[in-house]
Amino acid sequence: MAGESRGPVGDPAGRVVVVLDLDGVTDKAGLMDRCARDLALPDWFGRNWDALADCLADPALWPEEAGERGLLVVVQGWRRYAETRPDEWQVAEEIFAEATDRGPGLFVTLGLGESSERPPDRPG
C-alpha cells in the first residue's frame, strides 16, 4: 500500500500506518481512485464496494511487515466527501468497520482535523 507512512502519523502499537487521503474527493469514483492509489491496490481492483472490502481484508495486499505487525489505515480529509455524498459515505464507513471486524491485524480510523480553516473532523 503506497500511502505507507512512518512520519507524522504514528502508531504506538507498532502497526504499519497507511494514510488514505480523501482531500478533494466528492464521489464514489474519486474514493475508489484514491483507495487504489493510496492503498496500492492491484490492477484487478474492481473499484466497487465489495472489491474494496475484499482488498482491505486481504493481508497479502498489505505493505511488507503489516502481516506481522498489523495495519492501521488512517482516513484523512474525509469531511467534504461525507458532506457531499452522505449515503455513499455511510457505505464507506460500513466497509471500513467491516474490514476492521473481519480479522485481526487491521484497524481503519478517521483522522481528526481537516485544515486550519475548518473545525476538526468528528466521526459519525
Query: Helix tally?
Result: 5
Q: What order do the helices and strands follow?
A: EEHHHEHHE
Question: Sheet with the most strands?
Answer: 4 strands, mixed
Radius of gyration from CA coordinates: 14 Å
The first-to-last residue Cα distance is 26 Å
Q: Helix- and strand-based class? A: alpha/beta
**Proportion in β-strands:** 15-25%
Number of strands: 4
- Quick check: average pLDDT? 85
Query: What gross morphology would you assign?
Result: globular
Low-confidence stretches: 4-8, 115-124
Helix content: 25-40%
Strand numbers in spatial order across the main sheet: 1-2-3-4
Description of the structure:
- The chain has helices at residues 28-38, 49-56, 66-69, 79-84, 86-102, and strands at 4-5, 16-21, 71-76, 106-110.
- By secondary structure, the chain is α/β, with parallel strands linked by helices.
- Strands 1-2-3-4 form a 4-stranded mixed sheet.
- The protein is globular, with a radius of gyration of 14 Å.
List the SSEs and their pairings:
Blueprint lengths: L3 E2 L10 E6 L6 H11 L10 H8 L9 H4 L1 E6 L2 H6 L1 H17 L3 E5 L14
Parallel strand pairs: 2-3, 3-4
Antiparallel strand pairs: 1-2
Quick rundown:
The protein is of the alpha/beta class and 124 residues long. Helices cover 37% and strands 15% of the residues. The chain starts with a strand and ends in a 14-residue tail after the last strand.
